Structures are given as structure tokens and as C-alpha cells.
Amino acid sequence: MHLEITFKNLRPRQELRARAEALYAKLERFLDSAAEGHLIVAIEHSDAILELVVTTHGETHTVTEEDGELRAALDKLFHKMEIRLRRRKERRIDHRRGVGDEADGFAAADTDADTDTDTDTDTDVDEFVPAEG
């Protein structure tokens, strides 16, 4: 697992680099050892714009975050990536187990459409008595 950090329109900060590497290390449980990460940190019009690109298992995941605070944007960015990688891992595990058929909502549908469970509101035409007026 390797994280490359690129700074645009600002000086490289060791504090930010250490924070980004620590957050990237937390993603280790979702990534393989050959995963590559690229973090682009840019400042435009007093807003921090961050983009994280992670390549693993032949897939590329990209997340972008924009915020006025650089650290807040960094935390949100890695949180989004963690959610995305967690979903991918769960889907991959469910696919291996064969659970994916029920997860899409189609396999568990009741196909017996003729049965009506709400019988107390059904009225036949013969039973209807009009109110006397």
C-alpha cells in the first residue's frame, strides 16, 4: 500500500502528509498490499479541494471533497472512501456466498398475486344496501 500526495497551489506540509498517511493506513483492511493511492490537495479561491484515487483489485475508486477547512475536507474525503470500499468488499463477499440474489430485492418477492389479505373491506354488489334518503 502506497500513497502518493500531490500539492497544488500550496506548500507541502508535513503535518498534512502525516495525517493523510495515517488515514490511508486505516483503509488497509479494505485494500490489498498492492493497492496504490494518489491524493491531490489543491487550494482554489480559499477552498480546499481534495481528490483521492485508489486502485486495487483492478478497480479504480475516485472520491472528491471540497470544503473551507483543509483538515475537515481530508477527514470527509477518507470517510467517503472508507464507505465506498466497505460496500465493495461486502458486495464481493456476498457474491462469493451467493447472497447477491436476495440483496437486489427480486428473489424474495411473493409471486402469489391472487390472494388478498385484506378481506374485511371487500364487499360484493349483492351485499350492498343503499342508505334510505
Question: What's this, in brief?
Answer:
The chain is of the alpha+beta class and 133 residues long. It contains 3 helices and 4 strands, in the order βαβββαα.
Q: How would you describe what is shown here?
A:
The protein contains three helices and four strands; from the N terminus they run βαβββαα. It has 133 residues and is of the alpha+beta class. A four-stranded mixed beta sheet has the order 1-2-3-4, covered by helices on one side. The mean pLDDT is 81. The longest helix is centred in the middle third of the chain and has 28 residues.
Fold topology:
Layout: E1 2-8, H1 14-26, E2 36-44, E3 47-56, E4 59-67, H2 70-97, H3 100-103
Parallel strand pairs: 1-2
Antiparallel strand pairs: 2-3, 3-4
Helix pairs in contact: 1-2
Q: What's the helical proportion of residues?
A: 25-40%
Strands side by side in the biggest sheet: 1-2-3-4
Q: Tally the helices: what do you get?
A: 3
Main sheet characteristics: 4 strands, mixed
Shape: elongated
Taking the alpha carbons of the first and last residues, their distance comes to 83 Å
Query: Structural class of the helix and strand makeup?
Result: alpha+beta
